[in-house]
Amino acid sequence: MTRMLAGIAELLETPRNVLRETIIRSISATIVEAPTLRRHRLSNTEVTHQGYVLVRVLLDNGVTGIGEASTLGGPRWAEESVESISAAIVNYLAPVLRGGSAMAFEANAIRMGKAATRNFAAKGAIESALVDAVGKTLGLPASALLGGAVRQRVGVIWALASGDSGQELEEAREKLRRREHRDFKIKFGFDRPPNDLKRLETLRRGLGDDVRLIVDINQGWSEAECIRFIPALEELDVALVEQPVPALQLEAMARVAARTSIPLLIDEAAFTKEEIARSAAMGCGSVYSLKLVKSGGLFEMKRAAGVAAAHGLELYGGCLLESSIGAAAHLAAFSTMPKLEWGTEHFGPRILVDDLVTETLRFEEFEICIPEGPGLGVQLDEDKIRSFARKD
Ligand SMILES: [Mg+2]
Q1: In 3D, which of 374, 389, 362 has the Cα closest to residue 145?
Q2: 361 pLDDT more than 70
């Protein structure tokens, strides 16, 4: 009897124990530079190494959670760089979280919001690490903490971004042959529009009519160039045009959207919920690209999806060439969304010479599989982190 009462008392104590055990002891940031298999070009930058900040959160129970902030060619795609992300984490975000419970996700997000405006990549990496650590503590996948998965696999897009149509054709054919990808995103804007169009024509002719082609202009065209050249994209049966004009030119983007039969994908134009609501209400596009680097956290990315959906936008699971760590965090959230009409482009693990985890994410039958283990479901490869970590 006494033993049973002690057992009940212990059970009642469990939530409090878990809260105590998940106290955040330390948060560290490591800058990592991982080589890519080929040059990856965008309208305003190109990379041969991917810059990440690896976040490690250590809890009082000894569990370490990991998260990743991704950048693209320094502070170009967005304002944050690996150096600024690391500095924001060490100097402003970690100090307000240390000593509190990792499980208090929303309270932690509020604390980070008060400590730093925007800095979304830094905040997103920390929250991913907190979710990973709590998931590992409880033996639950991150998706369970985010509402529960409604899908275990997501259709996955590959990006063609070397700028050399011969190489790109070969790369796409190899992806089709391996049954890994049949939807391709072509990066535009680093060459003159007529040359980019010639490249696209070669790809369409070479790959046939069955593959889905998406064009990402990364803010590279003016409204006038859109008026002149988007009809050619219509001719080539492009399924989606991503962020054709500069992010702040919402009126121009809305006019471009109204003229074309191709849906526009809103990316750099909207980071926050308010920006999503405004761009959607103005008619800037009909699909929204979800990214941790824009939302600043997994829970906030789910809210972003809700705001976008409420405005009639379809959803696209965006990426910034994350390794399996960042991809797993995104996929955990994507797996819980009622709708994800365009699937995801989390091909990042496959563009790296070496992934940062012991077991890279699986790609099968044109889909990416969402890892099922506790937390993010991926294990850090410490040897690779050591070899790719920036040496000061
Ligand atoms: Mg984009």
Answers
A1: 374
A2: yes
